[in-house]
Amino acid sequence: MKKKFLLFAAFAFFFTGVFSQEETKMRASDRFIFSIFTDVWSNLPDGMETNTINRGVSLDYIQEFPISTSNFSIAAGLGFSSHNLYSDNWYMHDFENDNHSFTPIGDAEFEFEYDKNKISLNYINIPVEFRYRTRNTPRTFRIHAGIKGGLLVNAHTKYVGEDVPNGRDTKFKEGKLDNIETFLLGFHGRIGYGRVNLNTFISLNNIFSDNNAADAEFMSLGLSFIIF
Predict the structure, then answer these.
(1) Least confident range of 95-104, 108-117, 132-141, 215-224
(2) DSSP-assigned letter for residue 17
(3) Residue 96, exposed/middle/buried by CB under 10 A (0-12, 13-18, 19+)?
(4) How many helices (H) and strands (E) does the chain have?
(5) Can you give the pLDDT at residue 148?
(6) pLDDT tens digits for range 41-50
(7) How far is CA 64 from the centre of its chain?
(8) What does the alpha-carbon distance between residue 147 and residue 43 come to, in Å, rounded to a whole number?
(9) Residues 182-191: pLDDT tens digits?
(10) I need a labelling partner for 219 at 20 to 30 A (CA). Which of 81, 93, 200, 202 fits?
(11) Residue 7: count of CB within 10 angstroms of its CB
């Protein structure tokens, strides 16, 4: 009788421990995230000026895997991001060097008036993150940090302005661009309290290749919105 009681007590203790862990295990969250940001570019060709705000957006769906009963988790998913560079240079084919490179719009003799001139780089991303998140607080405090690898799926330029000085207004878009790396790798992170958080992304590899912007890189700064 005593052995049966001890055996029952052992099973009861085991299952109580299992279910108590399940009850206290952190629920997966922060899966659908929308972000807006500006890209801060550096190491661009000499004399090239960019807009103060180079707006971009990203959308990520991330699956979270809590680590035991702690406030930590790992996460991975799939996303899309659009990075933009607004400047006073066209990204166009250079026939002399047989590549795409940045060329100033106009010169000392001719000045063009334009409303928009940009190059847009769009990526399909795989983010991998290590996360910390509080529980049992009025609002969630979180820190997400990790790496993000992106595959370039679309690159295009868009210009809206004069086609010749003092000439008619025009709009053109070019989608066949060379001298752009197809893979993007960078560090990314989020920190905040509640559903609105600060975010950052820092590129770790070259964006362009074999042209006058081969050393260019960017850092993104903005806001992330935790949808669910």
Answers:
(1) 108-117
(2) H
(3) exposed
(4) 1, 11
(5) 97
(6) 999 999 999 9
(7) 18
(8) 22
(9) 999 999 999 9
(10) 93
(11) 10
Q: Which SS3 state, helix, strand or coil, does residue 73 take? A: strand
pTM of the shown model? 0.84
Torsion of CA 160, 120, 95, 181, to 10 degrees: 180
3-state DSSP assignment of residue 9: helix
Chain centre distance of CA 129: 13
Question: Tokens 């559903």 appear where?
Answer: 195
pLDDT at 113: 85
Cβ-count burial 46-67 (b if 16+ within 10 Å, e if not): eebebbeebebebebebebebe
Helix, strand, coil percentages in the chain from 3-state DSSP, rounded to 5: 10, 55, 30
Q: What is the H or E stretch that residue 127 is in?
A: strand 114-133
Phi, psi for residue 190 in degrees, rounded to 5: -140, 150
**Residue 88 half-sphere exposure, CB side, CA atoms within 13 Å?**
14
- Ordered by where they begin, the domains of the chain are 30-226 (2.40.160)
- H-helix or E-strand containing 94? strand 89-94
For residue 102, which of 203, 163, 170, 178 has the smallest C-alpha distance? 178
State the CB neighbour count (10 A cutoff) for residue 162: 19
Mean model confidence pLDDT for the chain: 88
Tell me what pLDDT residue 2 has.
47
> In this structure, are strands 169-174 and 32-42 parallel, antiparallel, or unpaired?
unpaired
